C-alpha cells in the first residue's frame, strides 16, 4: 500500500466516524431526518397546541366561561400533564382537522378522528384511545323504523365525517344534508329541517340526554364500528411513539375509566387496553 493510498484510507475512516457521530447526536437530540421532533419542541417550550372540538358533546365543548370540557378534553389535558406542558386548545371541525395538522397549526388533534385507511395515507394515526359506531336518530313520532326507511328522506351529517361517507356509499337513495358542525345537525333535526340524523354512538348518547323523549334511536346494529385515534403530522416517528406510549398507559388507568364512565356511561373497552 502506497503512502497516498494509506492517507486516503485514513481520511475516509475519519469521515465515516464523523457521519456516525453526527447521526448519533441527531437521534439523541430528538430529530427526524434532521428536523426537530414535535416532542423535542414541546419539552423545550413547555407548551402544546391541541386541536379539539368546541361544539361536539361529549367529545369537546366550550362552556359559557370559555373553558373546554368533554371526553377528548380529558385526554388532551392528561397528555399535556404527562409532558409538563401548558395546553393551548384550538377549536376544529371534522373538515379542518387534517388541514390543521398538515399546516402545523396544531401539534396533535384529539377530536374523534376515526381510524380510516384513507386517513392513514395523509396523517399519522396513533393506537386507538376509543371505539365508535354510527347510529341514526329520528324524532320520537317519526315513521322511520329501519335503515331501509331512509330512502328518500333527508339525513343530516357533518361534513368530512364518517356518517357523511356512509350516507354516500351505503344510502345513495337518502338525501344527505351536510353541516359544518354537529350542533347544526342537531338543530336541523329539532326544527324539522331534516328527517333524521346520523352520528357516532357517543354523540348520540349526548343527544338522547339533552333531547330526552323528543327523539329515539333506530333499533338497528351500529354502522361502521370503528376505532378512534389521535392524529399527528406525517413523518415525526419520535412524536408518534410518545403518543402511542401515552395512550397505552392512559387507557389502563383509573382516570381513563372515570372519564369513560362520566361521558360515555361505560368502562374502557378491553379492545383498546
Summarize the structure.
This protein is α/β, with parallel strands linked by helices and 273 residues long. It is 41% helix and 26% strand. It is globular.
Describe this structure in words.
It is a single chain. This protein is an alpha/beta fold and 273 residues long. The protein folds into 2 domains: 41-131 and 227-267, Periplasmic binding protein-like II (D-Maltodextrin-Binding Protein, domain 2); 133-224, 3-Layer(aba) Sandwich (D-Maltodextrin-Binding Protein, domain 2). It contains 10 helices and 15 strands. It has helices at 3-28, 38-45, 71-82, 97-102, 117-120, 162-170, 182-190, 201-211, 237-251, 254-264, and strands at residues 31-32, 35-36, 47-53, 55-56, 60-62, 68-69, 86-92, 108-114, 124-125, 130-139, 154-158, 175-179, 196-200, 215-217, 223-232. The longest helix has 26 residues, at 3-28. The model is unreliable at 7-29 (pLDDT under 50).
Amino acid at each position: 500500500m502506497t503512502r497516498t493510498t494509506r492517507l486516503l484510507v485514513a481520511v475516509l475512516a475519519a469521515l465515516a466516524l464523523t457521519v456516525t457521530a453526527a447521526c448519533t447526536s441527531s437521534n439523541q437530540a430528538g430529530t427526524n431526518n434532521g428536523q426537530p421532533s414535535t416532542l423535542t419542541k414541546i419539552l423545550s417550550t413547555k407548551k402544546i397546541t391541541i386541536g379539539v372540538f368546541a361544539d361536539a358533546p361529549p367529545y369537546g365543548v366550550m362552556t359559557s366561561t370559555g373553558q373546554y370540557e368533554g371526553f377528548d378534553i380529558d385526554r388532551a389535558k392528561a397528555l399535556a400533564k404527562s409532558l409538563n406542558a401548558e395546553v393551548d386548545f384550538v377549536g376544529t371541525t371534522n373538515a379542518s382537522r387534517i388541514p390543521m395538522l398538515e399546516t402545523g397549526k396544531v401539534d396533535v388533534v384529539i377530536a374523534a378522528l376515526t381510524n380510516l385507511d384513507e386517513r392513514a395515507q395523509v396523517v399519522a394515526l396513533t393506537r386507538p384511545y376509543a371505539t365508535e359506531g354510527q347510529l341514526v336518530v329520528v324524532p320520537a313520532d317519526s315513521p322511520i323504523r329501519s335503515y331501509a326507511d331512509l330512502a328518500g328522506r333527508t339525513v343530516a351529517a357533518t361534513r368530512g365525517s364518517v356518517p357523511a361517507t356512509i350516507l354516500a356509499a351505503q344510502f345513495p337513495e337518502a338525501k344527505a344534508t351536510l353541516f359544518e358542525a354537529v350542533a347544526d345537525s342537531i338543530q336541523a333535526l329539532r326544527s324539522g329541517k331534516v328527517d333524521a340524523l346520523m352520528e357516532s354512538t357517543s354523540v348520540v348518547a349526548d343527544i338522547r340526554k339533552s333531547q330526552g323523549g323528543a327523539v329515539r334511536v333506530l333499533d338497528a346494529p351500529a354502522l361502521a364500528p370503528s376505532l378512534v385515534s389521535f392524529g399527528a403530522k406525517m413523518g415525526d416517528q419520535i412524536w408518534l411513539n410518545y403518543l402511542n406510549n401515552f395512550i397505552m398507559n392512559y387507557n389502563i388507568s383509573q382516570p381513563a375509566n372515570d372519564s369513560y364512565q362520566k361521558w360515555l356511561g361505560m368502562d374502557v373497552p378491553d379492545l383498546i387496553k
